[in-house]
Amino acid sequence: KNEVEQSPQNLTAQEGEFITINCSYSVGISALHWLQQHPGGGIVSLFMLSSGKKKHGRLIATINIQEKHSSLHITASHPRDSAVYICAVEGLDSNYQLIWGAGTKLIIKP
Amino acid sequence: SAVISQKPSRDICQRGTSLTIQCQVDSQVTMMFWYRQQPGQSLTLIATANQGSEATYESGFVIDKFPISRPNLTFSTLTVSNMSPEDSSIYLCSVTGQGGDYGYTFGSGTRLTVV
Hints:
The complex is a heterodimer of chains A (110) and B (115). Chain A contains no helices and eleven strands. With 110 residues, chain A is mainly beta.
């Protein structure tokens, strides 16, 4: 079993829909990261969380440390949100190394 | 956050040759990492680049194949040696620990094709 599990693996939705991507992990962590990778390969860090909730524009990330679970939400989704969304965690003794989820490929249709 | 310049952005190389990828950061960073992403796969950590000493390699990666240099806190190189078609991947550098901000920043990647 992978230490970081994401669901769904693939998600196709219509423009305007509310999107939720889930991430569960099995190790103790110091932080959880949500990242976005566009088809060209570039990776952008969206959020770093150690507790609670963060919001940036239409993106919201939450984490429940007790349940070892995080969600990434996109409100009013748009075709430009189409990308792979990756959850990654820093283990407690990881020396900054990330444990990566497999990613969720999101396609937003106009 | 830090700004990374990664070069080259892409290259097509003959098997048996070597390619050196550069990663230049606009500020001093604590940690620099090199990743490989094979087609359709998630990122795999190759090694942690250590300033002034040998890199720390992950299982399955060795220094002879992927020599890494990090002469200072803002620059690192990864060489892919004696390339074969199986080395065709995207290679990315990543940094963290810049000025107390422990988010991660990624280079734009080097898309390598070995023919």
